[in-house]
Specification:
541 residues, globular, single chain, 17 helices, alpha+beta
């Protein structure tokens, strides 16, 4: 999941949430009062509400609370019922049968099995141009449909009556329950999509919602948006908040002032703020399964195709100094593409097995030597590039730090370009950059959530780095070795080692988020993968 470098929400498990439940015995009279309004800070505007095409974490967080899939994910990646009250898996792991509960859309329409079939087919349809279509790879015929070799109607999902969804997979996929909990697998109301056409999901009104909340204010371009309790939601009686106001705050000092004055109930901290508030009872550090990294455009410029140039740019960055002196928010130095703590095998973290220390360590002397050799090998005496990042304080700080680090290489000129989040995403996707600071948050707790991004031709592989060995290992992990735990683990370990040895991307840090939250805000559910937040259990004490 794409992450904004200021909010730094993350990111790839899913956008999913936890099963709604009662908030306990706490102050029921207060929780049911008109005071149940939460004012929440975001550092970038909401780009999209179309679950087939949205790719960023702000959209995911919002859809996660206004929509619901077959299943929901909670703390520690636990799986809970969603629209499906239960499900069964065949012995060979290839067939899932989901039995749906009776539930409704916010306009009163029934949520049926056909809504899932329609949504899934719409997402994999090449005409939709969904960047998340590749996530459907385990579903029968999905890849053939994406590659225009089979009809959309052949996708391995069917409705049996109104309340049963049967899914056929090409192969058993252990993380499939986590996939169906994410927004790109959410249902869509076909009549609503067709009614609004190109306007569908471009504002609050031209959409319908089946989750705990419904979007009530969003123009499609507004910096602020609001959602209110969805009374049509099947578990509405256990949703305590009446309204959530999201406010885009790019200036951390302004956000802090609004928090202190009571206009915000939570705010993210940056710069010196975390250090200043670490002793506050309202201070919280959140760990996220997300990695920030630099992509180098190998298609645009031959210099970035030079392995020594890529390695030099990586080795020139003092990551320890960056996370400890600049960020100071609980972030840690990345030891790989995959975030540390995401998954273990036989008690060992993935990055313990798959680390390549030279790819994420600081060695300025070696970096200068490699840079000099790269210039000579490409017939240059000097080199200029533009480093693109978000226009947020965190984005600007990151770009300025890296610019200063690269300047030490000599014979290089780095110009920074800080753009609005939505613009930066568009430039990245179109290949209109030299080097760009990107980020990804795991959509589900498996290394493939990161590693699948950088296969040849993947829509998220913005730098167009390519390796046959890498592609082969990822294909094996998702294909012939999918049900062999040891072989699959080794495939993924080898894949990460390949991209790190080749410096296909430059990992910088694993995100931490420093936050202040008012003590009156109770029941917040945070999880490190996906969209991070589920507000369905939250209430104001």
């Amino acid at each position: 999941m794409k992450i904004n470098s200021a909010v730094k929400l993350g990111t790839v498990a899913t956008f999913a949430a936890v099963l709604l439940a009662a908030c306990g015995s706490s102050s029921s009279s207060s929780s049911e009062s008109s005071k149940q309004t939460l004012n929440w800070m975001e550092s970038s505007a909401l780009p999209s509400m179309d679950s087939s095409t949205a790719t960023d974490v702000v959209s995911g967080e919002t859809m996660n609370n206004t929509g619901e899939g077959l299943l929901r994910i909670g703390k520690n990646s636990s799986i809970h019922p969603g629209v499906a009250k239960d499900y069964k898996v065949s012995k060979d792991g290839k067939t899932y049968t989901f039995n749906l509960r009776k539930s409704n859309w916010s306009n009163g329409d029934k949520v049926t099995a056909k809504d899932f079939v329609y949504a899934w087919q719409r997402t994999v349809n090449p005409k939709t141009a969904s960047q998340y279509a590749y996530m459907y790879a385990p579903v029968k015929n999905a890849n053939a449909i994406i590659n225009k070799k089979k009809a959309v109607s052949t996708l391995g999902v069917k409705a049996v009556g109104d309340y049963k969804v049967v899914v056929t997979l090409t192969r058993a996929t252990s993380y499939f329950p986590s996939l169906v909990a994410s927004p790109m697998f959410f249902p869509q109301n076909e009549s609503v999509v067709q009614k609004y056409g190109k306007k569908y999901a471009t504002n609050a009104q031209d959409n319908v919602y089946n989750g705990p909340f419904k979007l009530t204010y969003w123009t499609g371009t507004s910096d602020n948006w609001s959602m209110s309790k969805n009374t049509k939601y099947w578990n509405a009686k256990n949703v305590k908040l009446k309204k959530i106001n999201f406010k885009t705050m790019k200036d951390p000092q302004t956000a802090l002032s609004q928090y202190q004055s009571g206009k915000l109930d939570a705010t993210y901290l940056s710069g010196q703020q975390p250090k200043n508030y670490k002793n506050s009872k309202e201070y919280v550090e959140r760990k996220s399964a997300s990695t920030f990294y630099i992509e180098l455009n190998e298609k645009k410029d031959s210099m970035m195709k030079n392995k020594k140039a890529r390695q030099a740019l990586s080795m020139a960055i003092n990551r320890d100094q960056f996370v400890n002196k600049v960020l100071q928010d609980g972030s840690t130095v990345s030891t790989g593409v995959v975030s540390t703590g995401l998954v273990e095998n036989k008690g060992k973290d993935f990055n313990t097995d798959a680390a390549v220390p030279s790819a994420t360590s600081y060695n300025l002397k070696k970096a200068k030597q490699l840079w000099k050799e790269a210039l000579k090998e490409t017939g240059r005496s000097n080199y200029s590039l533009t480093l693109t990042a978000d226009d947020t304080p965190a984005g600007k700080n990151s770009a300025e730090f890296i610019q200063s680090q690269w300047a030490k290489l000599g014979n290089i000129k780095v110009t920074n370009s800080n753009l609005p989040f939505k613009t930066r995403l568009a430039r990245s996707q179109s290949g209109d950059f030299d080097a760009v600071i990107s980020a990804w948050g795991a959509d589900f707790p498996d290394p493939i959530s990161f590693l699948s991004l950088f296969t040849s031709g993947n829509s998220y592989n913005n730098g167009r780095w390519s390796s046959k060995a890498y592609d082969k290992d990822v294909a094996a992990a998702t294909g012939k070795d999918a049900n062999n735990t040891t072989a699959r683990w080794n495939d993924l370990v080898n894949a990460q080692k390949t991209i790190l040895n080749e410096q296909g991307i430059i990992p910088i840090y694993q995100q931490g988020k420093a936050q202040l939250v008012k003590s009156k805000v109770q029941g917040l559910v945070y999880f490190p993968t996906g969209a991070n937040w589920d507000f369905s259990k939250a209430y104001i004490k």
